[in-house]
Amino acid sequence: MTARKDHLDTLAISLLLGCCLFWGLQQVLIKLTLPEIPPLFQASLRLVGATALLWLWCLWRGIPLFERDGSLPAGLLAGALFTIEFLCIYIGMQYTSASRLTVFLYTSPFWVAVLTPFWVRSERLRGPQWLGLLCAFVAVAFALREGLAGGQAVTARGDLLALVAGMFWGLTTVVIRATGLSKLSAEKLLFYQLAVSALVAPVLSLGLGEVWRWQFSAFAITSLALQTVVGAFVSYLTWMWLLGRYPVTKVSVFVFFTPLFALLLGALWLRESVTPGLLAALATVALGIVMVNRKPRVARLGGTS
Questions:
Q1: What is the C-alpha to C-alpha distance for residues 49 and 229, in angstroms, rounded to an integer?
Q2: Residue 280 and residue 204: Cα distance in Å, rounded?
């Protein structure tokens, strides 16, 4: 068994930056592909493809996915929460910009910090951490208000869906922490989430009357391939591998690069408007969540350090 490291080396930093850069690009790809492929059909193709890739990977590596280990109820719950998150992302992208959606999506650590102490008593919040939560909450409220300015109810709808997606991402993390799912292999944990969403998304797509057309442009095929292979398969497995090998708090800080990359790529590629208010909200949310996740100093016995 490989020992955990207490610092981020060059490999870890390179992989983290690569993941965050692609996750920022991924929102832009989804947005650009929407005119050709409806949102839930697009999500279905991605999720079904990633599930198949993961299953083949586990067959090749000899990683068991279907053994009875008592994880099925919690795994299905995590999969359901993950499914709602993805559906909100793809539907919300119809109404708001890729950059705005990413800012609201990455409020997920806020929900983790609020909800985890109900199940993990050792992670109760203290004064400075509550202040950090207040900062993040005020920033989100301000950004939502900006979306409503000038009667932009459609933008606000997308913002709210992104915020709900962030909440369900956070709930997924809480379920994993509060149950035995954290003891599973990264592959099996990811399989629960991908497989459930791959079953639900196509049914919901057809139920909502989306038209499934199978003639795609070269760009749409490339976009789907990147979303499936790099986004839902390689990057997620890489992220889980990093969480199992390096300090979780130091790894988690890097997620704040994703909204920055999304803002940059959205402005350069989609010509999206990046307002000072949105930048201020992003910075304040990041500050608040860093305050929440900062560990309190422990005084040493017999003197100060």
A1: 8
A2: 36
Q: Which amino acid type is present at position 190? A: L
Q: Of all residues in the chain, what percent carry a pLDDT higher than 70?
A: 81
Mean pLDDT for 52-64 is 95
Residue 154 has a pLDDT of 67
**What is the SS3 assignment for 254-290?**
HHHHHHHHHHHHHHHHCCCCCCHHHHHHHHHHHHHHH
Is 2 inside any structural domain? no
Structure tokens at 303: 């003197």
Specify if 109 maps to a domain.
yes
Of 106, 125, 127, the C-alpha closest to 116 is 125
Q: Is residue 21 part of a domain?
A: yes
Structure confidence by residue, pLDDT tens digits, 265-295: 887 887 877 777 767 777 777 777 677 656 5
Coil/strand/helix, residue 212: coil
The two tokens of residue 124 are: 């109760």
Quote the pTM value: 0.81
CA torsion, points 270, 276, 280, 281, in degrees to nearest 10?
Answer: -50
Q: How confident is the model at residue 1 (pLDDT cuts 50, 70, 90)?
A: very low
- How many domains does the structure of the chain reveal? 1
pLDDT in tens, 90-115: 999 998 888 788 878 877 877 777 77
The answer to whether 237 and 283 are in contact (CB under 8 A) is no
Annotate 229-260 with b (16+ C-beta within 10 A) or e (fewer).
ebbbbbbbbbbeebeeebbeebbbbbbbbbbb
Q: Which residue range forms the structural domain that includes residue 218?
A: 10-293
Contact between 135 and 287 under an 8 Å Cβ cutoff? The reply is yes
Q: Is 301 within a domain?
A: no
Give the number of other CB atoms < 10 A from CB of residue 188: 19
Tell me which residue of 144, 43, 133 sits closest to 103, measured CA to CA. 144
